[in-house]
Amino acid sequence: MRQNDRYLELIARVGKWKPPAFIFGGFAEDTLLHGVISRPHNDLDVLVFRDQLDRYIPQAQSLGFEEFHVYYEPIPGRPLVLNAEREGLHLEISIFDCDGEGKAYFVVIGGADGKLYRVYLPDDALAFPPSALEGVSVQTLSPLALYQIRDGLVRVAPFGDLRPTDIPAQKLLRERFFKGKPEQKLAPEIRRHEL
Questions:
Q1: How much is the pLDDT for 36?
Q2: What pLDDT score was predicted for residue 1?
Q3: Per-residue CA distances from 157 to 45, 141, 178 (Å)
Q4: Is the peptide bond before 74 cis (omega within 30 degrees of 0)?
């Protein structure tokens, strides 16, 4: 079975998780921008909320992703990204938090100053209807959330420069969904995070 087909099968199975998980990253962009897998992918990025993580890990383990490792942990004891591998497939679970007002955010370490920053998701992040990727229903984050996550990572720079695949995807998201919208209206909300 081709690697793309194996990832499509994984996406379909993750789509049955309860409560629903949200796909973002490269597969979400392929879903929203092309409807087909346009390039090779190294992993499937899934968004879950921290207070529901213990409901998702057993579901991932039932798919053969038995052992998760912390990929990124800006605050000790509060990982942001977990990764597990099964026969060459990588499942990355990103863990978001909610503030006292119920607004979703993630915390990263600023590349320039080493301080902690919250990058907030837009209000419509979890409200976009499912779309199809090669006939498979995919619950993605909203286009604005995809755009703002990457833009926030550019602004705070915890991981350095964008990958070569990120730049055209960001441009296509803007052209397809936000043509003519001023840049300041697309910028994510970013705040310092205090421990």
A1: 97
A2: 58
A3: 19, 21, 23
A4: no
As for how many domains the chain has, the answer is: 1
Our measurement of the distance from residue 94's CA atom to the centroid of its chain's CA atoms, rounded to an integer in Å, reads 6
Specify the pLDDT at position 195.
84
Assigned token pair, 74: 């800006």
182: domain range?
Answer: 3-192
Cβ neighbours around 50 below 10 Å, total: 14
Q: What angle do CA 8, 50, 147 make, to 5 degrees?
A: 55
Nearest-angstrom CA–CA distance, 126 and 60: 21
**CA–CA distance, 104 with 43 (Å, rounded to integer):** 23
Mean pLDDT, 10 residues at a time, the chain of 195 residues: 91 96 96 95 96 97 97 97 97 96 96 96 97 97 97 93 88 96 94 93
CATH number of the domain within which 134 lies: 3.30.460.40
> d(Cα 94, Cα 48) in Å, to the nearest integer?
6
Q: Which of 114, 115, 139 is nearest to 128 (CA)?
A: 139
> How many other C-beta atoms are found inside a 10 Å radius of the C-beta of residue 43?
17
Residue 160: predicted pLDDT: 83
Helix (H) / strand (E) containing 138: strand 136-138
Q: Using alpha carbons, list the distances in angstroms from residue 109 to 9, 73, 81.
A: 34, 9, 13
